[in-house]
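User: Fold this; tokens only.

Assistant: Input:
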Amino acid sequence: EGTSNEYGVHPFEIPLATEVNIGEWKIEARSGEGSTDVTVRVEPYALPRFRLEATLDREWFLDSNAISGTVRSSYFFGKDVEGQVLVIASKYEDGAWAEYARSSSTLAGGAARFEIPARQGVQDGVTLDISVVDTAGHPEKTKLFVPIAAGPHVVRILPQVSAAKPGFPLDVAIETADPAGRPVSLPL
């Protein structure tokens, strides 16, 4: 039990015993008549056998552009990992993340390129579930969120007051930025 803060958030921790039932657990939150739940996986911690890094070619992509990047993987003692890479792209629709594309490739020298086809109409972003399986069959996984925008610029009108009054000037500002939120100088 608790109360959300001024931002509407109530952070908390759920302590787990060292020996718990492995599998999917449901966490439910209720406030008054409203409720929501989320399912989380509880699984044993396994020390990773190798590093897995994924980098995107850009910080954000237009919904008309393919998403591209590089996966790099090496063992902790320095040797490059040889194996298979699988990248699964998912978009949020109807209240859940749904897969819409896959890309698979083979690591060469510990690296592999990937490209996910463009998906018109994707709003806000997609998630990339990236996995590498080495030649011994050991998997490592990571996840990336990729911001997706309908256009290269975001333009917002910011009124200085919440209500306008007849006979008084209405002060406003126009903000222009790229989809990553960095200011951009544009003719208006």
